[in-house]
Amino acid sequence: MTKRVFSGIQPSGIPTLGNYFGALRSWKAMQDEYDCVYSVVDLHALTQRFDPDVLRSRTRYLYALLLAAGIDAKKSAVFVQSHVPQHCELTWILNCYTMFGELSRMTQFKDKSQKQPENINAGLFDYPVLMAADILLYDSDAVPVGQDQKQHVEIARDIAERFNSVYGGIFIIPQPMIPKIGGKVLSLLDPSRKMDKSDPLPGAYLSLADSPDEIMKKCKRAVTDSGAEVRFDPVGKPGVSNLIGIYALCTGKTTQDVEKEFEGKGYGVFKPAVGEAVNAVLDPIRRDVDVYLSDGSQLDALMREGALRAKAVAEKTLTRVRRAVGLAESAHV
Ligand code: TYM
Asked: Is 265 assigned a catalytic role?
């Protein structure tokens, strides 16, 4: 049987080059080999405060962006999370098989609690359980994500194993799939942190919606070091090494090839070359996203079709789960 893949992306900002190389590029590549289910996870985004109109339009934008990045809605089931209410029901059930202690240890919960001390809501705490529900509902074998989501996939495995140990083989145990290069693209202004679409400093990330000029400016202003050598040394030269990684990802070259190409040339030549390489990757995405957004009714139809496909699978899993835990089933509508 073809293996199933699930992954999701939050409409909490415009995706960055980190999202692209950490996740979206693998999502696209996996479509030929796997049965893929991809979601714009708008319920997860409610753990932060957004203007409702901004969240709604960003969800549509993100859906169009997935298509522009090469996700084929005919091959893969592509849907908006809140269109498939089974995610919420399974979350509640799984909550009862998840321990307070294990959620307290999640590094993302600790980070976000620091970032939004005025809004440490229960959703933020429960975020990994909704994510486990996303994954487990689709009997997913593999979950392509960036490095920062590894812990969340691991807790989904723990919850599934705990549930299976009580009720038998209800869930498939999913594997995280993290790209070797691209699994953690770093901030351009602080290479000790990941490139993050919610970063308050726009200069820290390369957004997939940035204009060619903006991309070039941000690359030129990226933090490097007082040296001049284009050498891959993530510990000693984290800023330059991050740019070498980005250039390598954009051009398909190895980091050694990049070092050779820029030997003796200095940052003044290297940084604009990075900007050009990024723009070459983003040009077709920027163009196609506008095409998808310009046909609103086609976008609606694709969202509906994706949600129906996802729902059919999700409901089957949920029926299995309801039966297993002993929920009354006869009048389910
Ligand atoms: P999100 O929306 O923050 O990011 C989407 C994907 O992009 C990856 N990513 C990165 N990869 C490399 N370098 C970076 N700087 C970088 N920043 C982000 C993330 O690892 C992710 O794969 N909780 C998830 C969304 C989610 C999900 C799921 C993922 C909800 N349910 C089920 C997988 C399975 C999130 O916030 O991703």
From this structure: no
Catalytic residue among 28, 184, 194, 271: 194
pLDDT band for position 181 (50/70/90)? confident
Angle, helix 296-325 to helix 267-294, in steps of 10 degrees: 90
Nearest CA to ligand 1 atom 11: 22
Catalytic, 112? Answer: yes
> What is the pLDDT, as a whole number, of residue 331?
63
Class of domain 202-290: mainly alpha
Q: How many Å lie between the centroid of ligand 1 and the Cα of residue 210?
A: 20
Does residue 171 carry a pLDDT above 90? yes
Task: Dig out the tokens for 130 from the structure.
Answer: 């909704």
Residue 262 has pLDDT above 90, yes or no: yes
Task: Convert the pLDDT of each residue in 118-141 to its tens digit.
Answer: 999 999 999 999 999 999 999 999
**Which pLDDT score, from 0 to 100, does residue 328 have?**
85
Q: How much is the average pLDDT of 23-31?
A: 96
Pocket of ligand 1 (CB under 6 A): 6-10, 18-19, 22-23, 41, 44, 131, 134-135, 143, 145-146, 148-149, 152, 183-185, 194-195
Which residue's alpha carbon is nearest to atom 16 within ligand 1?
18
Domain 4-178+296-331: state its class: alpha beta
Domain residue extents for the chain? 4-178+296-331, 202-290
Active-site residue, from 3, 28, 74, 112: 112
Answer yes or no: 197 catalytic. yes
107-115 vs 122-137: helix crossing angle, rounded to 10: 140
Strand pairing partners for 40? 9, 80
CA dist 72 to 68, 69, 76, 139, Å? 9, 9, 6, 21
